């Protein structure tokens, strides 16, 4: 039985202390925000809230849940997350499948073009002009179509597709299957792990959509949750929705607690889902990294 040396024990203790400190640096700010969201306006304004609520209240959440504009932004975020993820997976699979097959002529050039986009990304102004010329300004399509294919996710999916035996594809062609049918009935059912993993990557990206919406969406009714949150944090006039008028005095006197409540509402869904999907994130990073 191997016993750890004194140096190894010291190293392990140092690692535990370091990682614990890093974890606390990430976790404690969230606890502080959570405590402020359940604290009174006076307690938040005077800076008396640390890691526990002071003068516990649900008023901030009552405001958030009564503001129709927040729920509208929440619905927009869910919409672009679900539909955008489906578009991402469909587009990525449509490109990755033919490039993964040896018989596809010119596949090396396609891979090279995709690789170039990973190294050299287009600047903001050309992107803005392109979106404007395509007529997608103030449209939710501008948040889903331009980033339909991620170069990194493309390479991961391509590597997975390359591991599917060519004999299986050839047998399907002999049976009279076209390429679309092979992709839909053969390849995709065998690719559930990679589809689930990349779906998570895409979904998290859409849920956190901010910059694209800030550039391309000018209508408050189309703001996703992150942009709505930014608007509420950067302005003191939070009560902009008529349905939340009964809380207007609270919004004008001390909006800090309301801001913290909105942050929690925007963050909790991902925090609740992530522990159940963490293994897919790890697996998604490993897919295609080892070949036989």
From TrEMBL:
CC per GO annotation: plasma membrane
Protein's recorded name: Protein LplC
Domain ABC transmembrane type-1: 74-277
Cell compartments where the protein resides: Cell membrane
Transmembrane residue ranges: 12-31, 70-97, 109-131, 143-161, 182-204, 257-277
Membrane topology: Multi-pass membrane protein
SUPFAM superfamilies listed in its UniProt record: MetI-like
Gene Ontology BP annotations: transmembrane transport
Superkingdom to which the source organism belongs: Bacteria
Signal peptide per UniProt: none
Record carries keyword Transmembrane helix: yes
InterPro entries for the chain: MetI-like, MetI-like_sf
């Amino acid at each position: 039985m191997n016993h750890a040396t004194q140096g190894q024990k010291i190293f392990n203790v140092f690692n535990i202390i370091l990682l614990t400190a890093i974890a606390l640096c990430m976790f404690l700010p969230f606890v502080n925000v959570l405590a402020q969201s359940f604290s009174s306006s006076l307690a938040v304004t005077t800076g008396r809230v640390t890691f526990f609520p002071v003068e516990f209240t649900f008023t901030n959440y009552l405001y958030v849940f009564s503001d129709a504009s927040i729920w509208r932004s929440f619905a927009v975020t869910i919409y672009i997350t679900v539909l955008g993820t489906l578009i991402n997976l469909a587009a990525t699979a449509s490109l990755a499948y033919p490039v993964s097959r040896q018989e596809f002529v010119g596949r090396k050039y396609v891979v090279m073009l995709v690789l170039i986009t990973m190294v050299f990304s287009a600047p903001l102004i050309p992107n803005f002009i392109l979106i404007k010329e395509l007529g997608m300004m103030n449209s939710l399509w501008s948040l889903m179509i331009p980033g339909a294919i991620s170069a990194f996710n493309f390479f991961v999916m391509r590597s997975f597709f390359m591991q599917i035996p060519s004999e299986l594809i050839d047998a399907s062609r002999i049976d009279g299957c076209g390429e679309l049918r092979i992709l839909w009935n053969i390849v995709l059912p065998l690719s559930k792990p990679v589809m689930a993993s990349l779906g998570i990557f895409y979904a998290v990206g859409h849920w956190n959509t901010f910059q694209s919406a800030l550039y391309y969406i000018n209508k408050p009714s189309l703001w996703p949750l992150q942009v709505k949150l930014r608007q509420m944090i950067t302005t003191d006039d939070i009560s902009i929705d008529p349905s939340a008028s009964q809380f207007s005095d609270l919004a004008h006197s001390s909006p800090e607690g309301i801001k913290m409540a909105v942050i929690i509402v925007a963050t909790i869904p991902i925090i609740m889902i992530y522990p159940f999907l963490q293994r897919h994130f790890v697996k998604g990073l490993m897919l295609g990294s080892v070949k036989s």
